[in-house]
Amino acid sequence: MKTRFIALIFMSLTSVVMWAWGPKGHDVVAEIASRHISKKTAARIDKILDGKSMVYYASWMDGIKGIPEYKHTYSWHFLNVDPGFTYETAPKDPRGDVYNKTLAIIDTLKAGGLTAKKEKDLVRFLIHMVGDMHCPMHAGYARDLGGNRVQVMWFDTPSNLHSVWDSKLIESARAWSYREWADNIDVKDKEEVARMMSGDVALWRDDILSRVGSCYDAVPADGRLGYPYINAFTDDVEYFLLMGGLHLAKILDEIYK
Ligand SMILES: [Zn+2]
Asked: How many Å apart are CA 235 and CA 164, to the nearest integer?
């Protein structure tokens, strides 16, 4: 057991390609969403998730990657668009991506008539995927696998740009719990929240895509990232997490209103 545990740690440390906000990012998105859904939606979600919270399942989709039943969802965590392309003109992953599979899941849930197990799976996918869609390196360039191939030094530790955005920025910027993140960034007034919730999934996707370039451009030639990078992207990290939470709430309300 101990050997297996050590092997798992080794694998996670040496894994080359990562595709996920870290658990903290997903927890924050799910927590914020749970604060903005209607009472009716909350009651439906509570039933679908057997009394567990949205936060409880926020990273569930990352944990099932090795299970054969869910193998087909591997590419649903991201989309990749190289410079010079839009989402529409970029080559598509035939397995589906975080955008078109999110739309498909919304349609399936709206149509209804699902088994309890199927509906629970799709809601858990949605909670996670809307979070991933708001992580900029999940909408990163195809040529570097969403920043996975952009080698950087995070303070004194070798890393890559994808990993920096998934977890290092969040974990290094604050020592907050997911609730403290939500308490501190979900503070906009009603009008601003309504403005941030306006539009649709395609508009939100393009908003994120329009911000990806600056995440790359701010990496200095020597690849050394630390406090200046944290400082430069504090507002963006908060924006992405808050937008993810608000957009997830809007999607769930539209399905279960
Ligand atoms: Zn993911």
From this structure: 16
Distance (Å) from CA 117 to ligand 1 centroid: 20
Domain that holds residue 148: 19-68+81-256
Ligand 1 centroid – CA 41 distance (Å): 24
- DSSP 3-state assignment of 76? helix
pLDDT tens-place values along the chain, 257 residues long: 333 333 343 434 434 455 556 889 999 999 999 999 999 999 999 999 999 999 999 999 999 999 999 999 999 999 999 999 999 999 999 999 999 999 999 999 999 999 999 999 999 999 999 999 999 999 999 999 999 999 999 999 999 999 999 999 999 989 999 999 999 999 999 999 999 999 999 999 999 999 999 999 999 999 999 999 999 999 999 999 999 999 999 999 999 98
Q: Which residues, chain by chain, have CB under 5 Å from ion ligand 1?
A: 20, 77, 132
Q: 211: domain CATH number?
A: 1.10.575.10
Q: Which residues contact 37 (CB under 8 A, 6 or more apart)?
A: 45, 249, 252, 253
Looking at the domain assignment, is residue 8 inside a domain? no
